[in-house]
Amino acid sequence: MARKKEYLEADVIDKAMNLFWRNGYENTSMKMLEKEMGINKFSIYSSFGSKYGVFTESIKSYKEKTHYMFEKFEKASNGVEDIKQFFYDSVDVCNQNGNEKGCFLTNTYNEFSESEDEELKDQLNSFMVHLKKLFIEKLRMDGSKDEDTILKQANFLVLAKHGLAAATRVNNQKEIEDYIEMTFKNI
Amino acid sequence: MARKKEYLEADVIDKAMNLFWRNGYENTSMKMLEKEMGINKFSIYSSFGSKYGVFTESIKSYKEKTHYMFEKFEKASNGVEDIKQFFYDSVDVCNQNGNEKGCFLTNTYNEFSESEDEELKDQLNSFMVHLKKLFIEKLRMDGSKDEDTILKQANFLVLAKHGLAAATRVNNQKEIEDYIEMTFKNI
DNA sequence: ATTTTAACTAAACAATTGTTTAGTTATTTA
DNA sequence: TAAATAACTAAACAATTGTTTAGTTAAAAT
Predict the structure, then answer these.
(1) I need a surface site. Which of A87, A118, B21, B36 has the fewest CB within 10 A?
(2) Å between A29 CA and C21 C1'?
(3) Do B151 and B84 fall into the same domain?
(4) CB A65, CB A93: distance < 8 Å
(5) Whether A26 and B22 lie within 8 Å, measured CB to CB
(6) Residue closest to sugar C1' of D4 by CA
């Protein structure tokens, strides 16, 4: 047919994701994307349509990247201990390569919470609702908790997870560990 | 001498602050500032020099706005109970007028954590260090805690406060309350 | 080998960004 | 009342944003 593409879309999206993850959407320019992705504007547009297209693909890629973590979490059956492990796993993903980028989804939530991009916001909200459901499910495994306590603790953990995601942009591994241990001390 | 200014700088900065608080720096344009502040670009520039000048003045104004809260906190002498009250006061400031804007400083930290604005980042970091010192001071009041525990708990509380600030962009008053109560359950 | 087709480079695009300037209006003071 | 001065309006500014287009290069297929 014709000339062959010189890059894999999955590869360049992975690079774009890291850029968006670190700097957010607005603070990432096409010029930065060109440099980081290693391809020309034309190629970016022909592959992803727009800057926003690159962004949504990056989010998709992030979700795939963290999918194994959720699968492991959903399959586990040790109750609260699983939630704690999920917290640790999340931190590992966030802090890989020694970076302090926080959670990409949480960062995006913070940046877009006042935007009018309802679709994106819905997506992020349903992610949190899903998380809460999983927490409730695991909390129920203990058997000894009443529903009211379970709901309260689930709310607490969702916020704690959100906070932790924000905090991984700031603090070091040791403090993060202390934080997680303290969080689960009376759950 | 000459014509009189038709606005008070403190007034228009207050309006600008609310805009930056809600949308962040990059997502706030001069056009939005003109509209919200109710004055012309020329006036903005003659009063504050630049968009960034408006921003730094907004931060200053935010600090003044929340100063009374810190004063109250520093003067208090009921230990952990004071910290808890400080958490509640912080939430009140963030959620005034039914808004969900989070903490202006935390938002700013998140937006600028990858920027090269070292002065601003230093400012925000020293704010956190100060907070931690205050927490340690209050934790010591209990008398029964050893220094190692105090440090761990202070670290925990700083992150919890940071997380709470991020979370007030998302959740409702009731969930926030649950979160605070749970946070202090075993401190 | 020639044609076809698609990915490449690079330049131009319109729109928006933050910023400055020129010209007008109003208030103060002498 | 007239001169001086500073705040106003509005237009132009250069630079950067995301996006598109024109022209070149290279790999398939006939």
Answers:
(1) A118
(2) 30
(3) yes
(4) yes
(5) no
(6) B1
- Closest-CA residue of B relative to A19 is B114
Q: Which residue has the higher pLDDT, B97 or A16?
A: A16
Amino acid A37: pLDDT: 96
Please give, chain by chain, protein residues whose CB is below 7 Å from any atom of strand D: A 1-4, 28-31, 41-42, 45, 50-52; B 1-7, 39-43, 46
- pLDDT for A60: 97
DSSP A97: G
pLDDT in tens, chain A (187 residues): 577 888 999 999 999 999 999 999 999 999 999 999 999 999 999 999 999 999 999 999 999 999 999 999 999 999 999 999 999 999 999 888 777 888 999 999 989 989 999 999 999 999 999 999 999 999 999 899 999 999 999 999 999 998 898 888 876 788 899 899 999 987 8
Is the CB of A169 less than 8 angstroms away from the CB of B115? Answer: no
Q: Which nucleotides of C are covered by protein (CB under 7 A)?
A: 4-11, 16-22, 25-29
**CATH number of the domain bearing residue B44:** 1.10.10.60
- B66 has pLDDT over 70: yes
Same domain for A152 and A173, yes or no, is yes
Q: For residue B1, tell me if it sits in a domain.
A: no
Mind telling me how many Å the CA of B60 is from chain A's nearest CA?
A: 22
Whether B1 shows a pLDDT value over 70: the answer reads no
Q: Are A181 and B180 in contact (CB under 8 A)?
A: no
Sequence-distant (≥ 6) Cβ neighbours of residue B116 within 8 angstroms: none
Q: What is the pLDDT of residue A163?
A: 83
CB contact under 8 A, B166 and A163: yes
Let me know whether A54 and A88 are in one domain: no
d(CA B180, CA B173): 11
B159 inside 8 A of chain A by CB:
yes
Residues of A whose CB is below 8 A from B171: 155, 159
Q: What are phi and psi of B83, to 5 degrees?
A: -65, -45
State the DSSP code for B185: T
Q: Helix axis angle, A51-75 relative to A30-37, nearest 10°?
A: 60
Domain boundary among B41, B62, B83: B62
Q: What is the pLDDT of residue A4?
A: 87
The residues, ordered by sequence, that sit 6+ positions from A102 with a Cβ below 8 Å of its Cβ are A94, A165, A166, A167, A168, A169, B110
